[in-house]
Amino acid sequence: MRYLRIACRFSMIVGVAALLVLTASGQIPKTPKPGESLPGIDLPGANIDHITLEDPISKDAFDGREISCFSACEANPKCVAWTYVAPNTIQGPHGQCWLKSAFVKQVPNACCTSGTLATNDIDRPGSDYRHFTKLDGKAVDVRQCRQACMSDAPCAAWTLDRNNGTCWLKKSVPAPVKNKCCVSGSFVFQPR
User: Fold this and answer.
1) Which of 29, 31, 36, 69 could make a disulfide contact with 84, Cβ separation 3.0–4.6 Å?
2) Strand, helix or coil at 4?
3) Are 150 and 171 in contact (CB under 8 A)?
4) Residues 64, 58: Cα–Cα separation, whole Å
5) CATH number of domain containing 185
6) Phi, psi of 145 (to 5 degrees)
7) Where among 117, 142, 177 does a domain terminate?
8) Of 34-38, 128-132, 152-156, 173-177, minimum mean pLDDT range
9) How far apart, in whole angstroms, are the C-alpha atoms of residue 7 and residue 2?
10) Considering all CA atoms of the chain, what is the largest pairwise distance in Å, rounded to the nearest integer?
11) Against a cut of 0.85, is the pTM above it?
């Protein structure tokens, strides 16, 4: 428990320092909302990388391996989804992280927790202020659409229409609508 309190205090200090730097520079900080969190779900296939994760310091320490798996996916430019396999389930005594290049079929399995960088099969109609189908002469993918929104100050949400390859940037976060055409994501604006 002591390690958890120390880690939380350290994270809070780092977060406040980063917020002060961004505020002083005039930038509006925003954080991407993770996509779907899928406990008890495996995403078999479309693997692009594999990481064996270190065990927690002790049984009482905060287990951040799922967060580490999400962070590894965010850092990999080809990753859009991930699966964390818990220790002593189906892949040995250590936690395993599998990074995915595509949204694949969800398979129920208590061994795993999976997640995505965006929400698959969701459209967010409305609030559009910009759209495009190509960046640098190439068709737009999920990560590029997400990054375009992250980089554009007024953007609060985005949708990629897979049918025609159009990335829609949105000035607010419209209500989600189930639709197999699309992948969507949104951001949380931090207070100044």
Assistant:
1) 69
2) helix
3) no
4) 12
5) 3.50.4.10
6) -65, -45
7) 117
8) 34-38
9) 9
10) 52
11) no
Write the pLDDT tens digit of every residue in 104-117.
Answer: 888 999 999 998 88
Q: Are residues 133 and 160 in the same domain?
A: yes
Per-chain mean pLDDT for the chain = 80
Q: How many domains does the chain have?
A: 2
For residue 53, what are its two tokens?
A: 């994760």
Total residues found in the chain within this entry:
192
Two tokens at 67? 């967060």
SS (H, E, C) 96-149: EEEEECCCCCCEEEEEEEEEECCEEEEECCCCEEEEECEECCEECCHHHHHHHH
Structure tokens at 122: 């969701």
Do residues 180 and 151 share a domain?
A: yes
- CA-based nearest residue to 79, from 50, 38, 109: 50
User: Which single residue is written with the structure tokens 């737009």?
Assistant: 140
Q: How, if at all, do strands 47-53 and 30-32 pair?
A: unpaired
Single-letter code of the amino acid located at 113: T
Report how far residue 119's alpha carbon sits from residue 10's, in angstroms, rounded to the nearest whole number: 30
